Amino acid sequence: TFILGIDTSCDDTGVGVVELAANGQVHVRANRVWSQTVHAQYGGVMPELASREHVERIDSVMGQALAEAGLNVTDLGAVAATSGPGLVGALLVGLMYGKGVAQALDVPFYAAHHLEGHIFAAATEAELRAPYLALVVSGGHTHLFDVPQDGEYVLVGATRDDAAGEAFDKIARLAGLGYPGGPAISEAALLGNPDAVAFKEPLQGQKGFDFSFSGLKTAALLAHKAGARPEDLAAGFERAAVRTLVRTTVRAAQACGRQTVVVSGGVAANRALREAFAQTGLRVVFPGKGLNTDNGAMIALAGAAAIAAGRPPGTLGESATAYAPLATPPAPP
Ligand code: ATP
Ligand code: FE
Fold first, then answer.
1. Which residues does Fe cation bind (predicted)?
2. Under a CB-based contact definition with an 8 Å cutoff, are residues 212 and 160 in contact?
C-alpha cells in the first residue's frame, strides 16, 4: 500500500509517500518539504502567513512528491495528515487537502498526531515495537514518553520552560549565528572551547525526569554580554544541552526498565547528541536523513503504523486542534 502523508503543522509544507509492504516493512518513496522563508524577517513564525503559504504551495509539493515516488495519485491506498498539535490555520490546510484526496480516491483517511509522526520517523531504521522509551526533542517539545504498549504513551518527563530546539534557536540568534539555530550552533561548536564559558547542567540531582533550558539561556546571555566568543558559547551550550538530554533519558530508561530508546524531532539531527547517545549502551534509534525536522513522510509512517496495528481510520469529520497532548492519561482507579 502507498500511503500519502501530509504535515502543515507549522511553517513547513511537507508531503511524503511511504510504501507499506505486506510483511509490515516500510519504505520512504518520497519526502518533499517546502520550508517557508517569509517568517525570517519577523524573527518568528507568523501564523496567518504560514497558512497562506501552505495554501499556495501544497499542490506543487504534492506534485513533486508523487513525481519523486514515480506514482500517480490513483496509486495511493491511504492518506494520513496531521490534525494537531500546531497552528490551527496551518494544520487545516494539510488536513483538508488530505481529506479531499482521500475522499476523491475513496481510500481510508487517518488523522495523525504530530508527535507520533516524529516518533515513527524512526520506523525506517528499526522495527518500532513497544516497549520502548521515546524522547521527542524539537522546536516546541522536549517530551519523554514511556511506551509500554504500542499506541500507549505515558509522559514521564518534559521541559519546564523552553524546548531544546527553541533554546538552540534563541542562543544562536543571541550569538549572531543565524537561523535555524540547531545546525548553526552545531557547526560553530566545532570551532569553540566548551570550557571557556561555564554552563551548569540543569536540574542536577532531581529525582524526576524533567528538562529545563532557561538557565542555559541566561548563562549564554550573561556570557555574551561579557564578550564571550560565539563559538565558545555554542560549544559550551551544546555540551550542557546534550548532557542533560542524555543523562535524564538514561535515568528514565533505567527507571522504566527499557532497553530501547527512540530519539526524534529536529534536535535529533544533532551530531553531538547522536554521538553521546551511542555511548550509553542503550539501543538508540534515530530517524533517517531528512526525517528529523517536520516532514510528510513521518506522518505517512505514523499512518502506516496505524494501518499495520489494525487501527480504524478516522472520519472526514476530524478537525484540527492546536493543543493535543499525546500522552494517554492513566486510567482512573
Ligand atoms: P514541534 O514538533 O515541537 O511542534 P517543530 O515542528 O517546529 O516543533 P522540528 O521541525 O521537529 O520542530 O525541529 C526544529 C528544531 O530542531 C529547531 O529548533 C532547530 O533549531 C532544531 N534543530 C535542527 N537541526 C538541529 C541540529 N543539528 N542540532 C540541534 N538542533 C537542531
Ligand atoms: Fe515538529
1. 114, 118, 294
2. yes
- Nearest one of 117, 49, 14, 34 to 324, comparing CA atoms: 117
* Ligand 1 contact via 16 beta carbon (within 6 Å): no
| Pocket lining: 39 vs ligand 1, CB cutoff 6 Å | no
How remote is the CA of residue 139 from the centroid of ligand 1, in Å?
4
Residue 195 carries which side chain, given as an amino acid letter? D
On the question of a cis peptide bond just before residue 131, with omega within 30 degrees of 0, the verdict is: yes
Residue 109: beta bridge partners? 79
| Sign of torsion over alpha carbons 299, 301, 304, 310 | negative
Q: What digits encode the pLDDT tens for the residues 144-168? A: 999 999 999 999 999 999 999 999 9
From the CA of 269, how far away is ligand 1's center (Å)? Answer: 8
Q: Does any ligand 1 atom lie closer than 6 A to the CB of residue 293?
A: yes
How much is the ipTM here?
0.99
Radius of gyration of the chain (CA): 20
Euclidean distance between CA atoms 111 and 58, whole angstroms: 17
